Amino acid sequence: MRTTIAALTTAGALAVATIAVTTPSAAASVRYASHTVADGSGAPCTQADPCSLFDAVTFASAGDIVQLTADEYYLDRQLDVYADDLTIRGPSGVGTPGSFVAYIIFRDAASGGLPDTTSKLSFFANNTHFERVAITGTADGAAALVGASGAGMNGFTYDRVLIRNHGSGLALLGRGAAVKNSVILQTEASTFGRAAIVSGTISSSTIISRHATAIEVNDSYLALGTGCNLSIRNTLAWGAYANLLTDDSGSGCATVTVDYDYSWIPVASGGSLGGGHRLSIGSTVTSLGHNLADLPVVFDPTSPDDSYIGNWALSFDSPAIDVGCSDAGCTDHDYYGRPRPIAAAHDAGAMEQSLYPQIPSSPEVGSITPNSAALSATIASPGLGTDYAIEIRREGTGDWRSVGTGRAVEPFGGRQVSATAGDLIPEARYETRIRVTNDRGTSTSGVTSFSTASLEIDVTGVKAKVTKKKATVKSKATVNGNGRITQKITTGKGSKKRTVCTVSKQAAAAGTYSLACTLTKKARKQLRSGALKVKVTTTVQPTAGNAASTSSRLTIPRRR
Q: Is residue 340 part of a domain?
């Protein structure tokens, strides 16, 4: 182990010796980086004209912010930080990783990148801050994916960060670091591999080494300016060789000190418990009394999925849910940006477990017409997102149909969703409900019943226009729903009753429709001898359900 640490220190020293001389900008600023811009483009790193990631970081000044988009930034060279207090961050927001994470991807040697035995992201300045960033690559042997540095550099923070080393080396090396709401993963087979060698604090994070050590505190490297103290809160740590390893055999510290609380870092070893604790003589490791028992059902990364989430999230019945972190070491959000806690108390690890979506009440029914109804509901989903469907059916039938679907990305608090149900039958009884699904499961609201309105028709402006060649009755029919409008004009009574005109028009929606009914030749002939008294009957017939009609009388004057 001492040989590996020494190699890391030497690699950092060599990197310092080869730093390119740069001229930083005069004042701290936001530097925008695009994944499509080549290194050395000369772009000013503005929002309108972004530069490459390498240029944005390499030529930054103290206090600058490097702003990344939720894209993939591929690097074939080492990325070095020279500016103090530099922030490198992805987009803000709450949601799935694809919406907020900027991926910094170091190509491996086989893909044309740096040798796998080379460290990838190194620090030659203090207080670098990472937010909403994923850093992946291959670091083998003595190399570190993130954190190799010159002597004395410290004060790094990682919030909502994924660090995944596909190699056999170290994923994260951090002096005086603050790691929170993050996932650190080392995957390649090697008993000397480590996910994290850290001093400082780890909170609300998940740290895994498939074959080696999850968390290590080693005074051979970490003592330089920062001491050998590590405080762990609300964290899951699992390593096949060791869940927690301490090494104070070097000369940097008098002792190595670790305390942990509200966490699952099993002391016992074997199978899904990992490798347990491996502690050097003289180191002090203190459980503060709220830690989870050494139970294999808490978290089982023995066969981690290679997908983005994989087995990093807790199962729905894990004892690590609601463990109750409440002190100053707790964080107020998780890896996805969701507020902690979701339920009664914090969950251990980087991610809060989602709850079933909640629907505070049954849907409400607003404006009702003969053929439609405005439906709304309030939903709340403590999850990554909520798929909802507002559904309706005719009362007494078994089939529900969806009248409005969508995805509510706001995971907390109430959100109003709405839809309009169409193609309804006038004067009919209906039921409506809302069905909501998130990554935990599906919830269905209670049922709200309502009746559609009666179909109505009103006819105005009835008048006749008679010319030498034609006689027409014009009018305007106003309906409150859809259906077929038919107008029939008759004259006479009883056995002498006859139809002198018929016209029909389809009403696709509520509104006013113009009608023009042309009288028959026989009716026009009658007008030459005298006035014609007629009855105007107008009906609207829906596809299903009851029709509505209205009648009026009109005298058409004689026209020679």
A: no
Residue 35 lies in a domain: yes
447 with 478, same domain? no
* Structural domain harbouring 376: 364-451
Q: How many domains does the chain have?
A: 3
Q: Which residues contact 364 (CB under 8 A, 6 or more apart)?
A: 375, 376, 377, 448
Query: Is 349 among the domain residues?
Result: no
Same domain as 441, residue 467: no
420-424: long-range contacts, CB 8 A cutoff, minimum separation 24: 420/372, 420/373, 420/374, 420/375, 421/372, 421/373, 421/375, 421/390, 421/392, 422/371, 422/372, 423/371, 423/372, 424/370, 424/371, 424/372, 424/373, 424/452
Whether 46 is covered by a domain: the verdict is: yes
Same domain, 441 and 531: no
For the entire predicted model, the pTM comes to: 0.74
Query: How does pLDDT run along the chain (560 residues), one tens digit per residue?
Result: 333 333 343 333 333 333 333 344 446 799 999 999 999 999 999 999 999 999 999 999 999 999 999 999 999 999 999 999 999 999 998 877 777 889 999 999 999 999 999 999 999 999 999 999 999 999 999 999 998 876 678 889 999 999 999 999 999 998 889 999 999 999 888 878 999 999 899 999 999 998 999 999 988 776 555 568 999 999 999 999 999 999 877 666 767 899 999 999 999 999 889 999 999 877 899 999 899 999 887 776 766 554 444 556 777 788 898 988 877 778 999 998 888 888 888 999 999 888 878 887 899 999 999 999 999 998 887 776 788 999 999 998 889 999 999 987 666 667 889 999 999 999 999 999 999 988 778 899 999 999 999 999 999 999 999 988 899 999 999 999 999 999 999 999 888 899 999 999 999 999 999 999 999 999 998 898 899 999 999 999 999 999 999 999 999 998 76
Please check whether residues 270 and 370 belong to one and the same domain.
no
